[in-house]
Amino acid sequence: MISVQILRGIAAMMVIVYHITQKLYVNGDIKWSFELGAAGVDIFFIISGFIIYYSSVHEFSANEFMKKRIFRIYPLYWVITLVTLVISYIRPGMINQHVEVPISMWNSFTLFPVPGTSPLLIVAWTLSFEMFFYVIYYMAIKLKVNRILFSSVAIAVLVVIGQIFKIPFISDPITLEFIYGMIIAYLVTSKNTKAIMVIAAACLILSATPVVWHSEIRSLYYGIPALALFCVFLLLEKKVRQEGGIIKLAQVIGDSSYSIYLTHLYSLGIVFILIKSRVSVPVLVVVSFIVSVIIGILCYKLLEKRIIKSLRPLARKAPLKDIAKT
What we know:
Layout (H helix, E strand, L loop, with lengths): L1 H23 L4 H7 L3 H17 L6 H29 L14 H6 L14 H19 L3 H18 L11 H14 L3 H15 L2 H4 L4 H4 L1 H13 L1 H5 L4 H10 L1 H19 L5 H31 L8 H5 L2
């Protein structure tokens, strides 16, 4: 779906903006505005929940599902992580200057969460949650039960148990955002546009209330506005299909979103080293943003697509285009 790809690209760009703010140590009202870019991650999680259900409605093999997800996540991630490892020795602090906890190599290469540590590539914390969701969804397929119901209940129960017993990782309510996406995917496959419109309106209203903005739960204060935005984009699907030019560019960015996400810290590090002391802050922000997007697109075109193509015989027999967008 074009609207989903465009929103995926927007989410990647939001994360870039957020990390530019971190590197600049921006303060005041502008910092609050830029930090909204962190919600790009929440959009990613909702999109992930949506795509996993939407693309696997007729997929009955649990092993096929998991193999496909592993091939989609790990190969490019491992390449970028190895590059990060080399750079961390050559130029410490270029990428992970804000990390205040020990680096776990186990976490870095397996994405298995290790409490009190960080992966070498700090943005990989989100991939640990992605794999957590995939494992639960894999179990739903394996057990041949209702996938949305099983996955939703499992995630919710684990969050509650984690909160009660103070268990790191599984206690994080951010995983509820995968449920948001699955529910919307179900409504789309059921062609229930009215329900999506109601959810969009309700989320927009809630987003303007203290219930959301004063909440300390991320799946509320970022998740609900992100869900509203996601629903709005889905409702505009037919409209964006009729557009050209800028929409095609947005699609390219959306296709490249995973590469952009994994490489943008390198891009920012390089730009800041080369021109930070020579240009004004606005110029630095614009150049950093543009370079991050361009490098991410190049990574997708020159590396990610080739990796996907080379692994395609090992995964499910599906068109390269479909694998790249799931």
